[in-house]
Amino acid sequence: MDSTRLASIWSQRKVLDTLVRRDLRVRYARSWLGYLWTLIDPLAMALVYFFVFGILFHRSTGDNDLVFILYLLAGMLPWNWFNSSLNETARALYAERLLVRSTNIPREMWVIRVVIAKGIEFLLSLPVLAFFVVLVLAGVNLGKGNLSLNVQLLAIIPAILLQFVLCIGMGLVMAPVTALVDDFVRIVRIVLRMLFYFTPIVYSMALVDKELPEARNIMIWNPLVGIMDMWRVGLSGKVGVEGWAWITATIVSFAWLAFGLWVFRKLEPAVLKEI
């Protein structure tokens, strides 16, 4: 994407803000609980995974119950943002095809607006994490753990920024391809289900090293491995054990953004004819 296109997107940021607000209003317009669903859904899923993996299959982190739930939520909440962003961006152009054809705003904004809206929902779900952080810290003060929050809390910032870049980059690929090939959205859903278990969300990389060390060299290229580790370092205060994963996550995320911008620009004329 050239500088003119970037300047055009920036100049239309008020329109982008309007689109994001519209998406959020529509999502909760007919819901009694509204914003509370952003808290209920991840909390319910975390409790289910805690029961299955923490109790039935025995947890693999070696921590107490509250720390393990915090560990799960630190993976589940970012995953929900990633998963919902890709599912929605895959349909972003076709679902809004009338507006996409009739407006002159940069069409990348239809993808960006989805990622931002889902990101806001993700930020609104963070009180769930904050609640368990407080509980764990309270347990630490009673001598039940060793969690500490310090400057490593700043690791959350690159985690959010990298995931934002990654979601936009992948969304810019998904949106035009899905608009041209209907079946692609089904492929996306299948890949996302596989990727969930290929990402250390309900288990740790230490378990991978123990049970299947050969898989580390493959998994390290999954940018979500580094992003999840940033979240857990930020929330636990422990030294990160996935230094190379952080570097890989940065490289792969920005590579996806560059690739996405190129794909979107190349396929845009064909998409406009198709929709």
TrEMBL record:
<dbReference type="GO" id="GO:0015920">
    <property type="term" value="P:lipopolysaccharide transport"/>
</dbReference>
<dbReference type="InterPro" id="IPR000412">
    <property type="entry name" value="ABC_2_transport"/>
</dbReference>
<dbReference type="GO" id="GO:0140359">
    <property type="term" value="F:ABC-type transporter activity"/>
</dbReference>
<comment type="similarity">
    <text>Belongs to the ABC-2 integral membrane protein family.</text>
</comment>
<keyword id="KW-0762">Sugar transport</keyword>
<dbReference type="GO" id="GO:0043190">
    <property type="term" value="C:ATP-binding cassette (ABC) transporter complex"/>
</dbReference>
<feature type="transmembrane region" description="Helical">
    <location>
        <begin position="122"/>
        <end position="142"/>
    </location>
</feature>
<keyword id="KW-0472">Membrane</keyword>
<dbReference type="GO" id="GO:0046677">
    <property type="term" value="P:response to antibiotic"/>
</dbReference>
<protein>
    <recommendedName>
        <fullName>Transport permease protein</fullName>
    </recommendedName>
</protein>
<feature type="transmembrane region" description="Helical">
    <location>
        <begin position="187"/>
        <end position="208"/>
    </location>
</feature>
<dbReference type="InterPro" id="IPR047817">
    <property type="entry name" value="ABC2_TM_bact-type"/>
</dbReference>
<keyword id="KW-0813">Transport</keyword>
<keyword id="KW-0972">Capsule biogenesis/degradation</keyword>
<keyword id="KW-0046">Antibiotic resistance</keyword>
<feature type="transmembrane region" description="Helical">
    <location>
        <begin position="154"/>
        <end position="175"/>
    </location>
</feature>
<dbReference type="InterPro" id="IPR013525">
    <property type="entry name" value="ABC2_TM"/>
</dbReference>
<feature type="transmembrane region" description="Helical">
    <location>
        <begin position="32"/>
        <end position="57"/>
    </location>
</feature>
<keyword id="KW-0812">Transmembrane</keyword>
<keyword id="KW-1133">Transmembrane helix</keyword>
<keyword id="KW-1003">Cell membrane</keyword>
<dbReference type="Pfam" id="PF01061">
    <property type="entry name" value="ABC2_membrane"/>
</dbReference>
<feature type="domain" description="ABC transmembrane type-2">
    <location>
        <begin position="33"/>
        <end position="267"/>
    </location>
</feature>
<feature type="transmembrane region" description="Helical">
    <location>
        <begin position="243"/>
        <end position="264"/>
    </location>
</feature>
<feature type="transmembrane region" description="Helical">
    <location>
        <begin position="64"/>
        <end position="82"/>
    </location>
</feature>
